[in-house]
Amino acid sequence: MEQQWQTEQQTVLVLDFGGQYKELIARRVREQHVHSFILPGDTPVEQIRAFSPIGIIFTGGPSSVYGEGSPDVDAEIFRLGIPVLGICYGMQLMCHKLGGVVTQCDVSEYGVTEAELLVEDSPLFAGLEKEQTVLMSHTDYVSRPPEGFRVTSRTDHCPASSFENAEQKLYGVQFHPEVIHSVHGKEILRNFLFGVCGAKGDYDMQGYIRKQTELVREQVGDGRVILGLSGGVDSSVCAALLARALPGQVTCIFVDHGMMRKDEGDEIEQAFKDRDLHFVRVDASERFLSKLEGVTEPERKRKIIGAEFVAVFRDEAEKLGGEAGGQFLAQGTIYPDVIESGGGKAATIKSHHNVGGLPEEIGFKGIVEPLRGLFKDEVRAVGRELELPDYLVDRQPFPGPGLAVRVIGEITREKLEILRNADAILREEIGRLAPEHRPSQYFAALTNMRAVGVMGDGRTYDYAVALRAVDTDDFMTVKFTPLPIELLAKISRRITNEVAGVNRVLYDISDKPPATVEYE
Ligand code: XMP
Questions:
Q1: Contact 152, 119 (CB under 8 A)
Q2: Residues with catalytic annotation?
Q3: In the prediction, which pLDDT does 344 show?
Q4: pTM of the prediction?
Q5: What is the distance in A from the centroid of ligand 1 to the CA of 204?
Q6: Which end of the chain is more exposed for a tag (fewer CB within 10 A), N or C?
Q7: Average pLDDT in the 5-20 region?
Q8: The pLDDT of residue 321
Q9: In whole angstroms, what is the distance from residue 300 CA to residue 143 CA?
Q10: Between the CA atoms of 362, 368, 373 and 376, what dihedral angle is there, to the nearest 10 degrees?
Q11: Per-residue confidence (pLDDT) for residue 413, from 0 to 100
């Protein structure tokens, strides 16, 4: 078991059978203060046992248990005496492996429906009403439960929307309790965790910080750690945690590539200067901007910035005295990065991460990733525990290449200055909205278009600024935010009045797809 996953807390394992909801299930469990961890569905039983889980949840998945090569599970798992909750495909798999029958529905059932409880004493539904609104999404269903199981609910189209063998602590639900559309899904999961598995609810961020402190001390000893600090949430929280765990042993290198937002460099420095770490701010803007001179092709811009970042970081690491290779490299990798890159098998670096390639090139002594077990909302919670300022903890995503991907065409100091000022106005105005009314991400971009305008008695020929505001859960797809027109008008007036070089403001109303969030 990887060191990072060791925890003093009780753990529930989420076994993944290809469902789109594995992360959601794991997060729902953690919301109840129970630690959860995702593993592939075919994880050998000995490995599962090594985690000493208090419960196991099988996810759904698109397959059919009779399909060739469908995800399978070792039936031994049902004999461990550990409670299991199978969701959707997970329920069907449990049924199939224990000798019941799964059948294809005449029509797939998809959407919110009413389930009727058939029993009054099911531990899974304790305290719940007879009628339950649930989300169904399936093509197969359990037509005959395994021996020893009883059906506990049904819907109009599904004769067994849940079943159980309470004695063996095995439960199955055909619906999805993890989504909000299943109105009492949270209570059902709570019943499983606390009623069936005997969870104590002992998982919290203070405990996480304590455990990681212990682990990184063990790993690093009296060695030295270098962290590339971008000022993003993950690297900032990582820095704050390491400053506390390894006082005086950590150096944070903040490479200012000259394409940060207004005042951002100073804010980052301010947040870290009084912590117990060595903070190095490198003004590398000249280096970056000269390399970018005359470059207009978006991918080339990104490549140049990525390569230059590695070069600056290496130079600085070497300046710190002695061999950079003798030090540890810390990274703000978080759990979704690990899940996306194949489930934690390798010490993978975020593909879009600024310091990608560093460990191989410099040959660091080891990689320190204390946030590897956390979801984003948990990273923010750890940041709050460590008293990082709100503007860092609640920071919206900001791309590694910075404003370079928001200045269309060639990057010049003049264009960057215009964009910084326009963007600061947009952020100031939207920042006045209550947090729940703010879009997921909002920024200004400088189009490469100049157009004719009039100011006073004179003709102008100035840039058009584009405003972008989007709403999303995952940034894979986004919807543009319909900001109130009065707010847009105010931002437009302020930008054209206060920012020299701009005479037009455009609002980007494209979704992703077909657009992307960033312009380049
Ligand atoms: P796109 O433009 O791909 O952006 O729709 C999706 C999200 O990713 C952010 N983004 C980046 N983040 N390095 C990062 O750390 C990058 O190179 C990068 N490019 C895009 C973007 O701001 C949005 O939140």
A1: yes
A2: 88, 176, 178
A3: 37
A4: 0.87
A5: 30
A6: N
A7: 85
A8: 65
A9: 57
A10: -70
A11: 97
Say whether pLDDT at 203 is over 90.
yes
State whether the beta carbon of 475 lies less than 6 angstroms from ligand 1. Answer: yes
Gap between the Cα atoms of 139 and 108, Å rounded:
4
Residue with tokens 């600056």: 312
Residue 333 CA, ligand 1 centroid: distance in Å: 16
DSSP H helix total and E strand total for the chain: 15, 18
Core vs surface per residue 404-430: b (16+ CB within 10 A) or e: bbbbbbebeeebbebbbbbbbbbbebb
- Contact between 164 and 149 under an 8 Å Cβ cutoff? The reply is yes
Task: Calculate the CA 380 to chain-centre distance.
Answer: 11
Pairing of strands 366-368, 328-330: parallel
**Burial bucket for residue 461 (CB in 10 Å: 0-12, 13-18, 19+):** exposed
Does the Cβ of 303 fall within 6 Å of ligand 1? no
For residue 215, give the amino acid letter: L
1 confidence band (pLDDT: 50, 70, 90): low
Q: From CA 29, how far away is CA 9, in angstroms rounded?
A: 13
Q: What percent of the chain is predicted at pLDDT more than 70? A: 93
